[in-house]
Amino acid sequence: MGFSAPLAMLAIYTEFLGSLFLIFGFLGRVAAIGLIIEMIVAVAKVHLGVGFFMNWAGNQSGEGFEYHILYIALAAPIMIKGAGAWSVDRGIARWMASRHAAQPAEPLRHAHVH
After folding, report:
1. How far is CA 37 from the centre of its chain?
2. What angle do CA 71, 9, 27 make, to 5 degrees?
3. Is there a contact between 38 and 8 (Cβ–Cβ < 8 Å)?
4. Residue 20 maps to a domain
5. CA 64 – CA 50 distance, rounded (Å)
6. Which residue in 52, 73, 72, 70 sits closest to 62, CA to CA?
7. Number of domains the chain contains
8. What is the pLDDT, as a whole number, of residue 58?
């Protein structure tokens, strides 16, 4: 398909790790944008010429891009709003907020101007 080895490896990592990250809600926004970009590239390089619909009847030369649009539509809210209340990301944010709130605030130090 004309992709360099590093870009091919990036696509493999995005598919494998991105889907796992979405399942657990870890780096949800990063995973979602990576998968969205990958689907856009897949449509542009392979599926756009076939048309919109998937090859349900087996009479097309390939698969259309309707699945890819669905994939992008499902990943977009995660990219915009985050992975949700039960995600690892939210748990890390809560932990960091509680840790920050437990630390006493440092007193303000004023610079003395002479």
Report:
1. 9
2. 50
3. no
4. yes
5. 5
6. 52
7. 1
8. 78
